[in-house]
Design brief:
With about 220 residues, the protein is mainly alpha-helical. Helices cover about 75% and strands about 5% of the residues. Helix 1 runs antiparallel to helix 2, helix 1 runs parallel beside helix 3 and helix 2 packs antiparallel against helix 3.
Length: about 220
């Protein structure tokens, strides 16, 4: 984290970087405000991923991206101030101020790296149908349920396909029964004719035998 130093106090040689120290304090305060914004936007972004709220997700992704741009500008200001301090005349507190500026620059870069990671993770989850649950773990996004309009549309289409008089299952059952009865009657009719023919044949044979024995 940022090292601390006292702006006031010291020998006359410390007066060489008084204005630079004041500028550093302003930049450090500005960074702390941006860091607070980062924590807030990151939390909102992860909640939007958990809730599958694309509108809030896009909003907070936009905020994080803008914050990254602001941090980039702040890093440029820190770099410029560091160059001014390096060009200043040597004094006892000059090196301490340079160390503080390096720490501030590192803190800015750390937050920018976190922003990049958060946005990349969000894009990866959206592409792989994965979200963050309330415990911070990753979980699969459930398949979307059909809307009421879609469900009603499915019902109407099914009803129309079935026909106005009776459901599809009833039509299928009726056709199946009709085919079964027709097939059974064809087979039974052939059997009846066969039995009748045998009976007639037996009757003729018996009649002939009776005539023969009478003689």
């Amino acid at each position: 984290m940022l090292s601390s130093f006292a702006v006031a106090g010291g020998s006359d040689s410390d007066l060489c970087v008084v204005s630079e120290k004041a500028d550093y304090k302003d930049l450090r305060s500005e960074f702390y405000d941006m860091e607070d914004d980062f924590f807030h936007y990151r939390s909102e972004y992860k909640v939007s991923l958990m809730d599958h709220d694309s509108e809030r997700q896009n909003l907070n992704a936009f905020r994080l991206q803008n914050l990254d741009d602001d941090l980039d500008d702040l890093a440029d200001d820190v770099r410029d101030l560091k160059e001014d301090v390096e060009d200043a005349e040597d004094c006892a507190s000059k090196e301490d101020l340079l160390d503080d500026l390096r720490d501030l620059k590192n803190d800015i870069n750390d937050v920018r790296d976190e922003i990049t990671e958060v946005l990349a993770e969000g894009k990866s989850m959206a592409a792989s149908n994965v979200a963050i649950n309330e415990y911070g773990w990753k979980e699969a996004v459930p398949a979307p349920t059909p809307t009421a309009a879609a469900q009603q549309s499915d019902v109407v289409v099914s009803t129309l396909n079935a026909g106005p008089s009776q459901p599809t299952s009833a039509v299928t059952a009726t056709v199946t029964v009709d085919k079964t009865l027709s097939s059974s009657w064809d087979q039974g009719r052939q059997t009846v004719w066969l039995v009748a023919g045998v009976i007639v044949l037996l009757a003729v044979v018996i009649f002939l035998l009776g005539m023969l024995f009478r003689r």
